[in-house]
Design a protein that fits this description.
There is one protein chain. The protein is of the alpha+beta class. The chain has one domain. Helices cover about 20% and strands about 30% of the residues. It is built from two helices and six strands. A six-stranded antiparallel β-sheet has the order 1-2-3-4-5-6. The termini are far apart.
Length: about 110
């Protein structure tokens, strides 16, 4: 089993309350690997503000347009991406550990410390 996967799966359904009314929610499950989710982990890690609006999300629930590149370059077809308010950006899934580090680093940049 991939390092950290069991820990991430154990977080499924968990909500963490943070300061200033922010909160984080994890939804994670194993799926059969396919062209869209080759790593076999369906996930949604989201940060919400005190108005319950999602302001950050890392997930692979749907496809997103990859950034435009050269006309005939190869395209990656995985669904991994992140939401920052209304913006959707491609996310390069490397591992469960990297996913968690990247998510919490973004949360730390957004949530006020005081």
């Amino acid at each position: 089993m991939e390092t950290g996967l069991e820990t991430l799966l154990d977080l499924d359904g968990t909500v963490f309350r943070l300061q200033k009314g922010y909160w984080v929610k994890f939804t994670v499950r194993l799926v059969t690997p396919d062209i869209h989710i080759p790593h076999g982990v369906s996930y949604s890690l989201s940060l919400h503000d005190s108005n319950n609006s999602r302001i950050l999300g890392f997930d692979n629930a749907h496809g997103c347009q990859p950034p435009r590149r050269k006309k005939f370059s190869g395209r990656k077809v995985t669904w991994d991406h992140k939401h920052r308010n209304e913006k959707i950006l491609a996310y390069e899934y490397d591992s469960v550990v990297q996913l968690m580090e990247d998510f919490w680093a973004e949360v730390d940049r957004i949530v006020p410390r005081r």
